[in-house]
Amino acid sequence: FMVGDVKQSIYRFRLARPEIFMEKYKTYAPDGEREQRIDLHKNFRSRREVLQSVNYFFRKLMGEDLGGIAYDEAAALYAGAQFPETEEGQETEILLVEKDGKTWEMEETEQNDRELEALAIAQRILKLVGNQQILDKETGALRPAEFGDIAVLLRTATGWAETFSEVFASKGIPSYTASRTGYFSAREVVTVLNILRVCDNPLQDLPLTGVLYSPVVGCTSQELALIREKNEKELLFSSVLRYHEENREEQSPEKRVLWEKLDRFLSFLEETRELCTYTPVHQVILQILERTGYGNYARAMPDGEQRSANLQMLV
What we know:
Layout: H1 6-9, H2 18-27, E1 42-43, H3 48-61, E2 78-79, H4 113-128, E3 133-135, E4 142-144, H5 160-170, H6 180-184, H7 187-200, H8 205-213, H9 221-228, H10 236-246, H11 253-276, H12 281-292, H13 294-300, H14 304-314
Parallel strand pairs: 1-2
Antiparallel strand pairs: 3-4
Pfam families: UvrD-helicase, UvrD_C
Protein name: DNA 3'-5' helicase
Enzyme class: isomerase
């Protein structure tokens, strides 16, 4: 059997060619005796109103000359799931932002198109939360919408996700982004991933430097220089072990404080590396956050709700 989706083929991922799919599509009939085409056109994620709007636009836009498929009744999406009706009804909205108009309550500051769009969506979200009734998946009953019920889909996350997050934060809307660059470059995510990298292989200088300099260990730039002062060419982990061994009896306050930091870190590293051998990675992350207190630290930082959500997403 063959499986395909011409609506995905139009993006040309991995050299996809829609005409190949359409050739196979037209070769077989839905009621064939020996070979049969089975059309999977039901959608189980969206309400009927959403699908009707999508079908309306794509019937106007997509044809065999654009996308390689005629968006007819056979290509349309149909609701496969039932959702309860609400008093407000469900309608698809198009929000238009007039840059020089007064349609939205824009601040008296210069804002680019991305910020204006993010602001319009933020204002709509604030009106929905607490007022719009949605279906609770766990209870099966209707309840007021919460921030966590809302997703914003962007054509591209690059450059946009960061802007939306900043605008949302300015309006008191907690959010996290699933963009590859924005999410994985967040300080709290980088710190936890560096800990995992060091647990996997402590001989990696860059991740180890990040962990030592992070709040998890708390080394200063001067302390890192002290660790490396005897041999700058050796691996950083070797320098850490050497400093820890040579300064075990050190009494000077400066070096004693650094030794204690490294002593706690090496004990933590040994225990966590042993834990990794028989524990699923998500449980290892939870143990790291609990043992180091880094989860609480992230919540106490500016944009703490965002950072906490990032760590929860990592788990």
